[in-house]
Amino acid sequence: MASPAAAAGLAVPFWRSAGMTYITYSNICARLVRNCLKEPHRSEALAREKVHFTVSKWGEGKPNKPTLRSDGAEA
């Protein structure tokens, strides 16, 4: 049986009440799990954490030269 707070729509996930988005909460949890692993699994998981992407700015209706960017955990 649902509590009265949940029935009224007042039940908020703890990550939301802490002012986080679900993506932020998920990233924190994933980082904690990766840091708890033993070697060599830890270094493999940390290597997978890195993200590479390209950004293209548009001008006059055409994409300019794309720029490669990296985002990941700092060692």
Automatic annotation (TrEMBL):
<dbReference type="GO" id="GO:0046933">
    <property type="term" value="F:proton-transporting ATP synthase activity, rotational mechanism"/>
</dbReference>
<keyword id="KW-0496">Mitochondrion</keyword>
<dbReference type="GO" id="GO:0005743">
    <property type="term" value="C:mitochondrial inner membrane"/>
</dbReference>
<dbReference type="GO" id="GO:0045259">
    <property type="term" value="C:proton-transporting ATP synthase complex"/>
</dbReference>
<comment type="subunit">
    <text>F-type ATPases have 2 components, CF(1) - the catalytic core - and CF(0) - the membrane proton channel. CF(1) has five subunits: alpha(3), beta(3), gamma(1), delta(1), epsilon(1). CF(0) has three main subunits: a, b and c.</text>
</comment>
<dbReference type="InterPro" id="IPR036742">
    <property type="entry name" value="ATP_synth_F1_esu_sf_mt"/>
</dbReference>
<dbReference type="InterPro" id="IPR006721">
    <property type="entry name" value="ATP_synth_F1_esu_mt"/>
</dbReference>
<keyword id="KW-0472">Membrane</keyword>
<dbReference type="GO" id="GO:0042776">
    <property type="term" value="P:proton motive force-driven mitochondrial ATP synthesis"/>
</dbReference>
<protein>
    <recommendedName>
        <fullName>ATP synthase subunit epsilon, mitochondrial</fullName>
    </recommendedName>
</protein>
<keyword id="KW-0406">Ion transport</keyword>
<keyword id="KW-0999">Mitochondrion inner membrane</keyword>
<dbReference type="Pfam" id="PF04627">
    <property type="entry name" value="ATP-synt_Eps"/>
</dbReference>
<keyword id="KW-0813">Transport</keyword>
<keyword id="KW-0375">Hydrogen ion transport</keyword>
<keyword id="KW-0066">ATP synthesis</keyword>
<comment type="similarity">
    <text>Belongs to the eukaryotic ATPase epsilon family.</text>
</comment>
<keyword id="KW-0139">CF(1)</keyword>
<comment type="function">
    <text>Mitochondrial membrane ATP synthase (F(1)F(0) ATP synthase or Complex V) produces ATP from ADP in the presence of a proton gradient across the membrane which is generated by electron transport complexes of the respiratory chain. F-type ATPases consist of two structural domains, F(1) - containing the extramembraneous catalytic core, and F(0) - containing the membrane proton channel, linked together by a central stalk and a peripheral stalk. During catalysis, ATP synthesis in the catalytic domain of F(1) is coupled via a rotary mechanism of the central stalk subunits to proton translocation.</text>
</comment>
